[in-house]
Structures are given as C-alpha cells and as structure tokens.
Amino acid sequence: MVSLHTKKRKREIGQSFESHPDTSKPTAIFEADQGRDYTLSVALPGSIIANAQSPELKATLAGQIARALAVFCVDEVVIFDDGQGKESRGGAPHHSDLRNNHADSSYTGYSDPNYFLSHLLSYLETPPHLRVYLFPLHPDLRAAGSLPSLDMPHHSRAHEWCRYREGVTIENSNPPSVPASEESGKKKKKRKSTDSPMPTSTLVNAGFQFPVSIPIPIPPHTRVTLRFPTSTPPPNHQTVNLTVDAVAPSTPREEGGYYWGYTVRSAQSLSAVFTECTYDGGYDLTFGTSERGKPLSTVTSPSPSIPSPEASETFPVPEFTHMLIVFGGVAGLEAAVKADGELASMGVTEPEKLFDHWVNLCPGQGSRTIRTEEAVWLGLMGLRHLVVARGVRA
Question: Which range is most confident: 25-34, 114-123, 149-158, 296-305?
Fold first, then answer.
C-alpha cells in the first residue's frame, strides 16, 4: 500500500509540473506599446574604477553598472571627472606587479579610469554582431567576454524580427576591377582623370545572412539604426537584399516605444554634465544622491492632497521630458563640487544647490558606506515607478 501511494504521489507531482510554464528560457521580453519622448540619464564619476584593485575587478564593476543601466532602461550615461581618479590610480601596493604588466600597453584601467569605464560601457551596449567591426582588439576589453550579457531589445538574434534593427555599414564586396589590357605592357598610359559617380546606396550588415541596403551613401564601419517597411518580416528577408531606411537612434524610442540602449557621454567635470547636455532645453528634472539628503520616499510617495483629473495618484514632482540622476564616487558629490573650477568661480560650494531634489537612497543604512555600483541599483529601482508615471509620452 505504501509503495502504491508513493507512485501515485510521484505521478501527481509530475502532472503538476507539466501545467507550469517553462522557465528554462527567459520570457521577460521587452514589449513596446506607446512611443515616448522622455529620457532617463545617469551620471557617475569614472574614479570608481580606480577604487577597484585588479583588471578583473575593474571590468566586473563596469559590468555591474551596465547591467543596471539596461535593466532600468537608461537612455544616457555620463561619465564625469570628479578629480579623485588621479589620487587613486596607484592602487594597492601588493598589485604593483600586475600594474607593471600593463605599463607598456594601452590599458587605461589605471591611467585613465574615466576612459576605461566609458570604453567598456560602450562596448557592452553595442550589439554583439557589430562589435568586431566597431571595436578593435584592446587591452581594456580583455575581460569583457566574461561579463554578463545585457540582452537589450536592440541585441537582436538572426532569427528574431523587429521593425527596427542596428547594423554597421560595410564596403562593397565587388569593387570595379581594372581591365587586363590596361595592366599589360611596360609603359602604361595615364588615363584622364574622370569624376567617378558617387555611390547612391550603402550595404549594411544587420545580422542577417545577406546584407541590407540603405539608399544613402555612408562611410564603412559606421553604426546605423535601421527601420524596415513593415512590422512583420517578409518571407524572404534572410535570403535577399532588402532596402531599408536609416533613421535616428532615437526613432525606435519615439515612434515605437522601444528601449534602444544607452549613449555614453564623457564630461570633464560635474558642471559639464549640465552645460554639455545634448537635449534641447537641458534636463528638466534632476536628482542628486547623498546620505545627507532627504529620504527618497518624500519624492516617490504619491501626494493625496494634490488632486489630479488625469491620474488616480500624483507625485510631488512635475512631469518631465529629460530626467538626470547623479551619483557620487567614494568621496561623494561634495568632492566633485570642490574639484570643479567652473562651480568655484560661480561660488557654488554645496552640491544640493545643483539639483531639484537632493535624496538619500537608503535611510538608516546598515553599512557605513554604500558603493556607487550599489547606489545605482538602489536609485534606479527607487525611482522606477516615478519615471514611468511622470515621463512625457509621445
């Protein structure tokens, strides 16, 4: 009786597993719904790389930052110089031999942490099938292969279809050949120079079996964003040369509502994060992060006292088009302000004066410090609901 009961129990357990979804493959595929105009930007100092002691740890740190940017749909990341990288470039004494191994190479993990972080973030954001064209072999990328994939919507597989796709321009595979009659003979007559017609189209490697064509001339090894005529794949898209349009990198976000990766911008100082903003009108909602700020809940909690005919809940912040969240390094944003000559000339000595909101991401923290890579996750997670609720849609 016991054995029969045991078999019955095993059979019931097996049947229950069959009714559950298959979790062996990822199912959280990004689904675009409505185009959006708003953008989310993150700024952080490259000096956090100097605080990591080995090339492997430096690459891992960059990978953690990149994963946070991808998970929370960040559109722009700004790497600024807070003046602290030079003080930490020496690293720990017991890693001196390791640093000497990179002294004669172009490895920048110790010499220029700002560039190193920008370099790795750009590499990880690029679709894998384009990296061989856009990123030559470099010591900075030596450990990049061991980092986790970002797997963003524009990292399309060959069998996947989306109306938008990333590609890289390539040279024509059949350049005009010189007739054999002109090659023969000891003396070659100089032909009269004639203006060859400019090419009217460009071949693009989009990850398919055959390249696609865009009706404009673009130099080789240029990354382009493509838009196909329809949202459904043509029956022969893997076997013929399709003609598509080249569009702005922001088009998938603005038209289709897709998250289409992040751009990487470098800034020489904290003030340059604001003054060199590439968006028209600059950032209209800014957050500075510090353990000395107000609790984040004062901003993210809906305020029932403010009526809103358009939504069931409101926030103590207005709608925004371009949001910026700034994180400090080991010494905080106070050190970045102190090292900024432009801010000093303006008499700015307190970092909270630069932001609309000066927030503490984790009040009552148990650890004495919160690392920047941890703060990025905390900040983006804490502000996620506000970003979705208050961002301006198309």
Answer: 114-123
In the beta sheet, which residues pair with residue 79? 44, 266
Q: What is the pLDDT of residues 169-224, one digit of tens each?
A: 998 654 433 444 444 444 444 455 455 566 678 999 998 888 899 999 999 999 99
- Cα dihedral angle (55, 61, 63, 68), rounded to 10 degrees? -170
Which residues are CB-neighbours of 258 under 8 A, at least 6 positions away?
30, 32, 153, 154, 162, 164, 252
For strand 285-295 and strand 223-227, is the pairing parallel, antiparallel, or unpaired?
A: unpaired
Alpha carbons 230 and 238: distance in angstroms, whole number: 15
Q: State residue 148's pLDDT score.
A: 94
Among left, alpha and beta (phi > 0; psi -120 to 50; other), residue 230 is beta
Spatial distance between the Cα atoms of 316 and 36, rounded to a whole number of angstroms: 22
Q: Name the DSSP class of 252.
A: I
132 three-class SS: helix
Please write the tens of the pLDDT for every residue from 138-152.
999 999 999 999 999
DSSP type of residue 205: E
CA distances from 233 to 102, 161, 164 (A): 48, 6, 11
Q: Is 343 exposed, middle or buried (0-12, 13-18, 19+ CB in 10 A)?
A: buried
Q: Alpha-carbon distance 392 to 258, whole Å?
A: 15
**Res 171: pLDDT:** 84
Residues ≥6 apart with Cβ < 8 Å to 106: 138, 139, 140
Task: Please check the confidence at residue 59 and state whether its pLDDT lies above 90.
Answer: yes
Q: Report how far apart, in Å, the C-alpha atoms of 275 and of each of 127, 164, 283 are.
A: 30, 32, 10
Q: What angle is formed at CA 322 by the lines to CA 316 and CA 325, rounded to 5 degrees?
A: 70
Q: Pairing between strand 76-80 and 39-45?
A: parallel
Structure tokens at 242: 């399709």
Residue 109, both tokens: 């993990």
Place of tokens 């024509």: 172
H helix or E strand, kind and range, residue 129: helix 128-134
